[in-house]
UniProtKB/TrEMBL annotation:
GO molecular function, one term: hydrolase activity
Superkingdom to which the source organism belongs: Bacteria
Gene3D superfamilies named among the record's database cross-references: Metal-dependent hydrolases (3.20.20.140)
Source organism of this protein record: Teichococcus aestuarii
Protein name: Thioesterase
Domain Amidohydrolase-related: 7-301
Protein family membership: Belongs to the metallo-dependent hydrolases superfamily.
Length: 307
């Protein structure tokens, strides 16, 4: 197999033994989780040496960490901890930080996050409806909330992009948001969460993704494709991977592991072997873009492109 460098565009490092991650604290109640029982992750650190033990034959040359829902009373605490980890180990190469866009302290938080060279963007999971039929436009905490949008409007001044995790039935709200703020790149996490694999569900996901892709500043991470109660299989995910690339183009898609979370569904090797098999017929330059070069551009990593 041809050598392919990988920049993992979305994973976590955390240490819930020493740091405060409420959802990973085994002394606290579990939260509803899209993969079901996540007890195997609770109370267990996931650090560079743990990550390295899982990557197998894949040549991961750099990676980007995502905020892991550190205690929101201290939104910059994880970023400072991550900067210290990078100083000691050389990883991660970039970090996406926590910021609550509808909080009164959003300006101070964004300024503090942007002051850390490791931080390239922020994530705030907006309020989401449990189904397409229950979407309430403008609901408090949603992307249509005026306070939320006011926080989003501050991102460009701090040189930060936004990472969005939301079900596909909220992507029209995201399209409204990026139309109002075209200067701010938006990165859709986890392929728009196509968890409903029925014909109707996939048709809704596909149409929403096509509408969002009309905004040129939107990127998408192909990740988070696990299904509850079953192992990660290429036959479940190949069509979604290829449709996402067809919709957004190879220049705006990135592959990512979402580890250790997606470790609940499959091994790192299984998932990245699946990604590689899904695109093995694409031109080599496009494969390099998906696995490596696009992450350099989006996260401004200062590394040489491979393609």
């Amino acid at each position: 197999m041809r050598d392919l460098p990988v920049i993992d565009a979305h994973h976590h490092f955390w240490d819930p033994v020493r740091n405060d991650y409420p959802w990973l604290d085994p002394r606290r109640p579990m939260i509803p989780f899209r993969y079901g029982d996540y007890g195997a992750m609770r109370g267990r650190p996931f650090l560079p040496e743990d990550y390295d033990a899982l990557t197998g034959h894949h040549r991961v040359v750099a990676s980007v960490t995502m905020e892991g829902e550190w205690n929101p009373a201290d939104p910059t605490g994880e970023s400072r901890w991550m900067a210290g980890l990078a100083a000691r180990t050389g990883r991660p190469a970039a970090h996406v930080a926590q910021a609550w866009l509808d909080r009164a302290d959003v300006e101070a938080v964004l300024a503090a996050q942007a002051a850390l060279p490791l931080v390239k963007g922020v994530r705030h999971k907006p309020r989401a409806a449990p189904s397409p039929a229950q979407v309430e436009r403008g609901a408090p905490g949603s992307m249509g909330d005026p306070r939320w949008r006011a926080g989003y409007a501050r991102l460009a001044a701090h040189g930060l992009h936004f990472e969005l995790q939301t079900p596909w039935w909220h992507l029209d709200e995201a399209l409204d948001l990026v139309a109002a703020h075209p200067e701010t790149p938006l990165v859709l996490n986890h392929t728009g969460l196509p968890s409903d694999r029925s014909e109707e569900g996939l048709a809704g996901w596909r149409a929403a993704m096509r509408r969002l892709a009309t905004a040129p500043q939107v990127w998408v991470k192909i990740s988070g494709l696990g299904l509850p109660g079953r192992p990660w299989r290429l036959e479940d995910n190949r069509a979604i991977i290829r449709e996402t690339i067809e919709i957004f183009g190879a220049g705006r898609c990135l592959f990512a592991s979402n580890f250790p979370v997606d470790g609940l569904c499959g091994s790192f090797e299984t998932i990245f072997d699946g990604f590689r098999a899904a695109v093995e017929d694409l031109p080599w330059a496009e494969q390099l873009a998906l696995f490596h070069d696009n992450a350099i551009r989006l996260y401004r990593l200062g590394l040489p492109a491979a393609g």
